[in-house]
Write a sequence for this structure.
């Protein structure tokens, strides 16, 4: 048994630097902040300045075990709480998170370098929305009655799986966590989240806030590195389901470990999402759609980023020029500054990876790198992980930039001449997460939408994941769906059949 809570709540704060310091060194286990058992910590760095703003607990198997034990114990009582009441509690969490949107926005901007106005505040708002949505679904955990024989009552019931292990990445950590935690909790599971090394703070704060409403142990969080802290979570015998968002490579490791225990796993992995623009599109709307589709305000760090843009040849040159002009007008700068459109890359490693792609593209014969916007001039930001967005033209379909996920502000554009050819090119990818089509000919658009190999296809828009709409990829982009009622039922419950012979 843990002594709990070991640490008092952290005061609300709109000063993200103070809040980051206050959150330093803790996991959140069994209803309270607890320091890591081995005392080790790692640096959380502000990517806009390179300065350390906090230390995160560097968890290992012992911390994971404490969190899972707490969750396993709490889950038994949680599963007995009427489903609608569980939902009401998750709904109450949403209300609490709404009161903290500004605080969470500043904290996530500080640790990830995502601009406050264009990205961080949006994410924090959507997080509250996701908890609100799932909070209303408690009474949807229904079973069926099955015709079997007149004297036999045959019904199915939905039961929780037990302890869910959730492993999350750093790009939209609060939202990607919410998509796992909200349905898992409403369905009667307890959760242990392993946060991403690059962004452990805002999610920790959310965990604490929600623990003011939820019973202790139902929602725990550990921070640490993947192999030392993530792997023991997947491997823990009491963890009965794993849900993961991140890279394909790590997703396969997680899936193999889950297979060893024969537990179900949901994987949300990468993407190389095509955007297909026909000459009859609404030109200006589509140019601005390309900017949002490519998630330039998130430095392209999105699994659904439109990182391959195919434009029908008659408007290709004009489209490239218009896009370049529009991205040029975006302001790069301090993520916490309201004027900033584009912040920083999350880490040195990611910056090096993105630069590698840009160098390779620039060195390719026949390719042109259209470098956009301008580096910030503020000397305080000179060590910041800024990178100018790049639009590439003239790269062939076999280029690594066309085939691999870059996860940076880099998109490749190519002209096309007919719908069948562009469809084949769009589908010629290991990935199948999202796609968008831009045309006023809905007959063509719908036909292609049916034939694109992707989990989400949008025509004349390219929104991020939305509560209530199933979200998840095909091919190497993942297994299973998130964000919807079906996702909660299929991925966080199992169906039990009960038969009563009334003789
Ligand atoms: P990653 O997949 O290695 O990390 C994601 C999460 O998995 C982190 O919490 C990490 O600690 C954990 N993890 C790592 N190794 C693990 C293991 N052996 N067992 C259990 N958990 C483990 O992704 P990373 O290294 O942050 O980024 C690399 C690339 O992955 C990016 O450049 C991008 O292409 C892709 N990516 C895709 C994301 C998406 O939304 N689908 C999100 C983040 C990254
Ligand atoms: Mg990794």
């Amino acid at each position: 048994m843990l002594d709990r809570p070991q640490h008092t709540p952290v005061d609300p704060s709109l000063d993200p630097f103070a809040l980051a310091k206050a959150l330093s060194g803790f996991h959140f286990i069994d209803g309270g902040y607890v320091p890591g058992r081995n005392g080790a910590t790692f640096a959380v760095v502000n990517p806009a300045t390179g300065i350390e703003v906090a230390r995160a607990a560097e968890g290992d198997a012992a911390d994971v075990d404490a969190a899972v034990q707490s969750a396993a114990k709490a889950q038994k009582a949680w599963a007995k709480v009427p489903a609608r009441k569980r939902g009401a509690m998750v709904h109450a969490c949403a209300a609490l998170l709404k009161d903290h949107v500004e605080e969470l926005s500043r904290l996530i901007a500080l640790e990830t370098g995502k601009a406050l106005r264009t990205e961080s505040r949006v994410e924090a708002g959507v997080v509250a929305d996701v908890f609100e949505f799932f909070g209303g679904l408690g009474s949807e955990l229904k079973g069926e009655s099955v015709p079997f024989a007149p004297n036999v009552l045959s019904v199915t019931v939905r039961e929780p799986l037990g302890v869910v292990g959730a492993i999350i990445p750093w790009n939209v950590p609060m939202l990607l966590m919410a998509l796992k935690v909200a349905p898992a909790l409403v369905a009667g599971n307890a959760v242990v989240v392993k946060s991403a090394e690059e962004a452990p703070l805002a999610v920790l704060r959310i965990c604490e806030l929600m623990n003011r409403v939820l019973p202790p142990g139902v929602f725990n969080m550990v921070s640490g590195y993947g192999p030392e802290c993530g792997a023991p979570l997947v491997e823990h015998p009491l963890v009965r389901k794993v849900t993961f968002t991140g890279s394909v490579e790590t997703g396969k490791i997680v899936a193999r470990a889950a297979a060893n225990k024969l537990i179900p796993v949901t994987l949300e992995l990468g993407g190389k999402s095509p955007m297909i623009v026909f000459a009859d599109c609404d030109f200006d709307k589509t140019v601005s759609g390309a900017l949002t589709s490519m998630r330039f305000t998130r430095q392209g760090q999105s699994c659904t980023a439109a990182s391959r843009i195919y434009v029908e040849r008659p408007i290709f040159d004009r489209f490239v020029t218009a896009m370049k002009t529009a991205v040029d007008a975006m302001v790069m700068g301090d993520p916490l500054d309201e004027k900033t459109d584009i912040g920083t890359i999350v880490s040195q490693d990611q910056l090096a990876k993105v630069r590698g792609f840009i160098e390779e593209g620039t060195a390719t014969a026949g390719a042109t790198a259209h470098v956009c916007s301008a580096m910030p001039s503020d000397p305080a930001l000179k060590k910041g992980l800024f990178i100018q967005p790049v639009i590439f033209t003239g790269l062939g379909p076999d280029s690594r930039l066309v085939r691999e996920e870059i996860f940076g502000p880099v998109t490749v554009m190519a002209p096309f001449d007919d719908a069948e050819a562009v469809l084949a090119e769009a589908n010629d990818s290991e990935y199948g997460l999202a796609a968008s089509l831009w045309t006023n000919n809905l007959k063509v658009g719908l036909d292609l939408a049916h034939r694109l190999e992707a989990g989400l296809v949008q025509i004349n828009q390219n929104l991020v994941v939305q509560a209530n709409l199933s979200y998840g990829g095909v091919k190497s982009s993942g297994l299973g769906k998130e964000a919807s009622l079906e996702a909660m039922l299929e991925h966080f419950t199992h169906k039990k059949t009960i038969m009563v012979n009334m003789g």
The CA atoms of residues 389 and 411 lie 8 Å apart. The pocket of NAI (ligand 1) is lined by residues 167-171, 194, 196-197, 225-227, 230-231, 234, 245-247, 250, 253-254, 268-270, 303, 350, 353, 405, 407 (CB under 6 Å). The chain has 16 helices and 19 strands. The chain has a mean pLDDT of 97.
